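Quarterly update, task 2.4: EPZ-bound model.
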Amino acid sequence: MEKFIVHGGSPLSGSVNISGSKNASLPILAATLLTRETCVVRRVPDVSDTNYMLQILQNLGAEVERASGTVVIRCEKLRSHEAPYDLVRKMRASVCVMGPLLARHNRADVSLPGGCVIGDRPIDLHLRGLEGLGAEARVEGGNVRLEARYGLEGREIDMSGKHGATVLGTDNVMMAAVLAKGATVITGAACEPEVVDLAEFLISMGAKISGAGTPRIEIEGVAELGGVEHTVIPDRIEAGTFLVAGAMAAKERITVKRVEPRHIESLVDLLRRCGCPVEVGDGSISVGRAENPVGANVTTDPYPGFPTDMQAQMCALFATTPGTSVVRDTIFPQRFMHASEMKRMGADIQVEDGTAVIRGVEQLSAAPVMASDLRASAALVLAALNAKGATEISRVYHIDRGYENIDDKLIQLGAEIERVPA
Ligand code: EPZ
């Protein structure tokens, strides 16, 4: 295992290129199961989660080649319809192979994903949607076994849940419906840019989809899909994470490049409300520290609302913002593992019922802290940027799941961060 040592107080400047989106790449890689022809996917970030997905596809029989950010996949001869526990338990997002396997084989055996520290991660909405298309689902020995004995039939499917729409659930149903007989209408669909990117990938393969990016997606099933070349959208959460780093520690400004600004409008608006100067360019965004920083009240919401994946990072900013800020996570109410670690650094954060009340302190101080999940870990790195002294962050493998070379990129901006054996 490795840890980061972050020496706080180094001002950031310059610019950084943002990688392709992890959360768009994962369902798109799964969607290559839907054709026997070759797919070329560009700008796939080299992070553990995409590597796990490629292992799962190879385990199913896919031929995979990877050259830096470009992945070439051919799922011509699949030898299995099973995604085994030892791979799925490493990455919950593996569930998004269910839809394509069902569409390809009329069968899918996928291990039930474990929970994780951000909370229970049920898949009831996925199963309700796939059953709506004619699959039978049963749980046996920790696996979900899906079978569509008479094939998949399109119909109207409601995907909304008590915490709003489901991103991967929408993806799963969309990937099953594109090869189903007849028309499918998905209501209560997730509107995230990553869902739109998947839809565009499927349309390039020959799928008939309209309405992606809205709560109502219409799909006309086709007999087969072909190979495709596609470039994944920029990672809006990585971009947002670096924007918060700039809001906390920029000397003047830092700039994130190769981004799609409209994908993170909610964050840009919030940083401006907090007093940060933000300039939006064509494919880039620049941010600086607020001269008169003010806290804010923010609640996470499905897209285009404020993303839950940026909640921990905002807690890091609010920890040293004068006044009181309130952060409420309606999507993952338990997603506050970062709070207890930030308190070890001197933050004043009280968490109750999915809501964090944060009273800004003058400065955090270095302490040994432990990464717990992807975004909480990134938030600890942000908190360390301005902390007094050298903060040690252990279990950085959590960060490597979803951030491509975050330490190198921060060093490029002037941060003093080193990766050392734990
Ligand atoms: C995706 O997860 C993202 N992961 C998550 O990012 C992100 O936090 C989440 O969407 C919400 O935006 C990927 O895209 C790989 P959901 P997903 O189904 O699809 C409940 C990161 O840090 N729910 O949209 O698994 C669920 O408990 C990761 O990059 C059900 O109740 O999340 C949650 O409260 C973390 N039943 C809400 O819906 C279901 O069957 C939204 O979850 C499915 C979900």
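Highlight for this quarter: The longest strand covers residues 250-257.
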